[in-house]
Inverse folding.
């Protein structure tokens, strides 16, 4: 895919019609959207692996700070600690992974169908849990 083409349509021309206060609606092809979603998922997986590698590095550094301090000095340790602190704050990654998890919970709940007390209860609990996953990432 070279570029995602954005199409414009009147809300009333869509099937089913979209309720919108706008004069037009921007859209992309489902195939372009799916390809972008796949690429973002691959990036998120790689990012999570990189994050775990950084955490492993941080754990080793934390366990050996005295030896490292002797080698690189106080200023070197401060640089390492600042870099470690910066890698722990990844809100976009956290939000994306929370969304993926929430969607997984919702996909699971869809498998229960509906119409029974148990399936309705499972869907309600799943909806609540997926909302909490999303909210937790936003904080």
């Amino acid at each position: 895919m070279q570029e995602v083409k954005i199409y414009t349509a009147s809300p009333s021309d869509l099937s089913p019609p979209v309720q919108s206060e706008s004069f037009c609606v921007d859209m992309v092809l489902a195939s372009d959207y799916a390809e972008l979603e796949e690429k973002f998922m691959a990036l998120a997986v790689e990012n999570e692996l990189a994050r775990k590698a950084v955490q492993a590095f941080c754990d080793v550094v934390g366990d050996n700070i005295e030896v490292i301090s002797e080698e690189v000095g106080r200023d070197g340790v401060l640089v390492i600690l600042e870099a470690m602190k910066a890698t722990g704050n990844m809100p976009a990654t956290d939000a994306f992974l929370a969304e993926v998890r929430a969607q997984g919970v919702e996909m699971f709940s869809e498998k229960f169908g509906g119409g029974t007390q148990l399936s309705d209860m499972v869907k309600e609990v799943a909806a609540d849990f997926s909302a909490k996953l999303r909210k937790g990432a936003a904080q």
Notes: The mean pLDDT is 83. Helices lie at 30-63, 65-87, 91-110, 117-138. The radius of gyration is 23 Å.
